[in-house]
Amino acid sequence: MFVRLAGCNLDCSYCDTRYARHGGTAMSIDDIVQKVAEHRVRLVMVTGGEPLLQDETPELIRRLNSSGHLVLVETNGSLDIGVLPDEVIRIVDMKCPDSGMADRMLMANLERVGERDEVKFVISTRKDYLWAKELMLRHSLPQRTTVLFSPAHGVLEPRDLAEWILEDHLQCVLQLQLHKIIWPEKQRGV
Question: Does the domain at residues 2-182 carry the CATH identifier 3.40.1380.10?
């Protein structure tokens, strides 16, 4: 289950959740925990926008975790992931140059990730791929965590990215947005 928090401090060129930048429905932590419980799922992804903009996010994660959920947090990489509780799985989405936001990344997050966490790169072009590859290798990410390379949907063909990864023998996972493949007509609520 996704818990999507409103608000974002970045404006990525390929953003597919612009609706999450503003608005949303105000809910207490109790309300969110109750809503998640109604769906009877174990795995919960807290995402955004940017979930670390909300001061209550660490408490929400603790409450979900203490309710028996396995909690993942996907963050845009610009804010300190050190504020998150130890029991959470952190997915740090490092923005590549063609996102227009690469200069906003908090590079110290790459030293904070552990083996349960993931570092994700959304790749739009060959330039992005080379940048992500260099950063991944410079920080020895495959030896410390899972690395995901995801083609920007509708911008880069997955096959091209797969071929680059295979040619370079990179230790990373090709990640596709399956909900966009399965339900291409849906913009939200998948």
Answer: no
